[in-house]
Amino acid sequence: MQKKDSVFNRICLSAAFIFLLLGGADLYAANTFTDPKGRFNMDLPAGWKLQPQTDEKTYVFKETADSIIMEYFDGALSREELFQKGVATVGFSMPTAAVQGDIMDKKINGNPARWGIYRDTLLVGKTKVVLYGLLGSISLKKGGLYYLVIVNEQTLKAKQKMFEETFQSIRDPEGTLTRTVDEGKAVPASPALQTAAGEPLKFNKRNVSMVFPAGWVEIDKSGQFEPEFLGFFESRTVPGTTLFIYAYTGFTAGYTNLRIRGLKTIAQMYPRGQEDLKKTKTVKTNKGNSVKVELWRGYLMSGDTVIAKQSPLGILKSEKGGWLMLIGVVPDASGPWFEEEFIKIINTIE
């Protein structure tokens, strides 16, 4: 159960940036951070410190209210691949973000890099809050990372240069600081985060098959969940949207037991409370099997602010034996879209 909780924490990690208070506007002298695994160095402003890590590849640096998040990946990944991983993380906190200006390719300390800024407007109660995501990626000799800061407009004006210079200090352990070189606009330029294309995703595992609409991808989470875990999926159409699927057999199966499991999972995801938006209804798959579906809204903390997400829950008995449980997560504003998407996926289950 702890492993599953950590995954949900990772999904919501970027949401911790939202609604940060404006800190001091001074640009402080740098101090060098050396990755404990020896994968990279970077210069942080004075006073910035690495926070306790959930794993050895995720980094959060803080000073007062502001934060920098980075995720490192082993292997030969291009700046384009690393940047897209960062784009997905932007979408967790800024689900309708769009690019501001151009996405630029750069050479930073001799390494291929990419830089861009995203903007989104969130509604908090009746107040509109404008957020900016400063996103960079850099491909290093033994791997690479993306670098992300999400701030409000005041902080952007006061500290944009500091955040950009911090990103431009990232280098290989044996590398030295050199002049950053602009290599021109990225081709193609990144579109709004909502844009997604491609073919429908066909999933088939353990005698269970289903089809996801275009824009969904499967993320390999092998070994990170209990044995009943079947698959984890992300939407590239509305970033921040995920779907977990579990398959149960034996005495742990059955509608009542799975509903209890599902509601406990939703309670863990939303420690600030939950409310049922729609009572349980029965949906038929294309094969005529019955699926019990209900919709919940949950609340969690993001910085000093409570934010809302929605989670559909679906349970059915598979025609090939056993039981399935599906649990989704979506930003509250995109709840109606995901409700329709959830039903489309359920309809295809065989």
Structural description of this entry:
This protein has helices at 2-13, 79-93, 153-167, 255-269, 335-347; strands spanning 30-34, 41-45, 49-50, 58-63, 66-74, 98-108, 111-124, 127-139, 143-152, 181-185, 201-205, 208-212, 216-219, 229-235, 242-248, 274-284, 290-302, 305-317, 323-331. The strands form four sheets. Strands 3-4-5-9-8-7-6-10 form an eight-stranded antiparallel β-sheet. The chain has a seven-stranded antiparallel β-sheet with strand order 13-14-15-19-18-17-16, sandwiched between helices. The protein has a two-stranded antiparallel ribbon with strand order 1-2. It is elongated, with a radius of gyration of 21 Å. The chain has 350 residues and is of the alpha+beta class. Strand 17 (290-302) and strand 18 (305-317) form a beta hairpin. Residues 1-29 and 189-197 have low confidence and may be disordered. Helices cover 20% and strands 44% of the residues. The chain folds into two domains: 2-185, Protein Transport Mog1p, Chain A (3-Layer(aba) Sandwich); 201-347, Protein Transport Mog1p, Chain A (3-Layer(aba) Sandwich).
SSE blueprint and pairings:
Elements: H1 2-13, E1 30-34, E2 41-45, E3 49-50, E4 58-63, E5 66-74, H2 79-93, E6 98-108, E7 111-124, E8 127-139, E9 143-152, H3 153-167, E10 181-185, E11 201-205, E12 208-212, E13 216-219, E14 229-235, E15 242-248, H4 255-269, E16 274-284, E17 290-302, E18 305-317, E19 323-331, H5 335-347
Antiparallel strand pairs: 1-2, 3-4, 4-5, 5-9, 6-7, 6-10, 7-8, 8-9, 11-12, 13-14, 14-15, 15-19, 16-17, 17-18, 18-19
